[in-house]
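> Could you send the Carboxymuconolactone decarboxylase-like domain-containing protein prediction when you get a chance?

Sure thing. Input:
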Amino acid sequence: MSTFHIHTIESAPEQSKPVLRQLEQNFGLVPNIAGAMAESPVLIGGFIGIFQKVHAGTFTEAQIQTLLLTNAVTNACSWAVAFHTALALKEGLSPADVEAIRDGRAPADSRHAALSILTKTAIEKRGHLNDHDVNPFIEAGFRRDQVLEVLTVLAASTITNYAGNITHPPLEAPFQEYAWTA
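Output:
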């Protein structure tokens, strides 16, 4: 059970309200994890800034969801796994590839596999990647600058995953069917 308050737009600190409004506009609801993060205007403000950069980068939404779902599984954040499962399926990832990621395996799609493996390795090796780790990503058709862009997605998801692991927000009804535990 969470000891952190899940803020609504009305109950959030004044500096957090614009971010919650923006997330409500993007998703049609204020995700509970954002409601928990809103307790700290510094955290929610930093999150929205990096969130915007991630979605304005060179990766497709399906590729971003591959990264975010992999990161959520690797960081064992149950809320984020359920949320990003729903979004990954919405963005066209195959159910088999989504299930593989949820099981800690690489998806069958070679480009999604390269994304998933690189981000999982970056988390597990705490960023200490070598050519052996990076080359399969490049060989899958990605560029060197995108190796570094993966870090932006990783930073955004680390904020969310750690906040979820600390605050334990309840899972919203639309994501219940995708509930996951480590």
